[in-house]
Write a structure and sequence with these properties.
The structure is a homodimer.
Chain A lengths: L1 H16 L6 H12 L4 E2 H7 L6 H13 L3 E5 L5 E5 L13 E5 L5 E4 L14 E12 L6
Parallel strand pairs in A: 4-6
Antiparallel strand pairs in A: 1-3, 2-3, 4-5
The structure holds a DNA duplex (25 and 25 nucleotides).
DNA sequence: GTTTATGCAAATTCTTTGCAATACT
DNA sequence: AGTATTGCAAAGAATTTGCATAAAC
């Protein structure tokens, strides 16, 4: 309960520290990210912000967050877009070699920051810049 | 040159062996897959088939190919869909644990069938069903 | 006061669906 | 002949753009 308050209080500072203007709508959206530990879709945010802000505003907020490195895009196996906080990225360094996990049971997508992306050996001549891994299966909550 | 002819000749048989009717449009589309070693987008196919068949027909052909396990879907980092032949899948067994490689230079997406998908260790409780890997970088042709 | 964000409307793009005409087996 | 495929039109979903108003710095 105190963590909820703390997180919500963090939103304005996080926005400021990323060079973003602090508006009511952005604070609300960012709070949803801070209070959930999984990736959020535009549709989900639209539902949550129903009366408070426009669909288009949410698109633009997400775009601004992406640009400033506050969140990153996660795609599920069907190509549907979700967004998640860049918890392990600093303001300057961005690595998107995250392992993402999509639960077939609850449908949530998680960023498994603790899982190391393996070094893959590719055929001669191929140079790796980024590695994206999407695992599908059953998450810890749903496998109980 | 003979390989081109051979491949094109293969298309009708491949269709038949997958329980698909042999139509002019499907043979044309499948030939593009057989003659290229990278994933093809709907847009690319639309361009190639411009005068010969409708946009919608291509969607339906791809859908039929997917259903019969002739091709599989590949998504790039932006969520754009491409399709590639299931070269390592038999008629009955399908594994989609392919490693896909998207070249930042030429924009092509390749299926690296020879690259083994590593066994990843996830936190307690997570169960893996499928693992998708998309690597971005520079392909062998572009790195020369 | 200047710059940036918002809401609303409308335009784009991508994909799916219905149905009558056509092609395949 | 019987069944599946095609083309065209139109519907639907997701995302983007333009512009005047409002809010942030």
């Amino acid at each position: 309960m105190s963590s909820h308050i703390q997180h919500s209080t963090n939103a304005p500072n996080l926005l400021k520290s990323h060079g973003l203007r602090v508006t009511e709508g952005r604070v609300e959206i960012l709070s949803y990210f801070l209070n959930d530990n999984h990736a959020l879709s535009h549709t989900y945010l639209e539902e949550k912000c129903k009366k408070s802000q426009d669909r288009v505003t949410i698109y633009r907020a997400l775009y601004a967050f992406l640009e400033k490195g506050l969140i990153h895009k996660v795609l599920d196996e069907g190509g549907a877009a979700k967004y998640a906080l860049c918890s392990t990225c600093s303001d300057t360094v961005h690595h998107h070699d995250h392992v993402h996990f999509k639960c077939d049971t609850c449908g949530q997508t998680y960023c498994l920051d603790t899982v190391q992306v393996p070094k893959l050996v590719l055929p001669q001549g191929y140079k790796i810049k980024e590695t994206g891994i999407l695992i599908q299966g059953v998450c810890d909550k749903c496998s109980k």
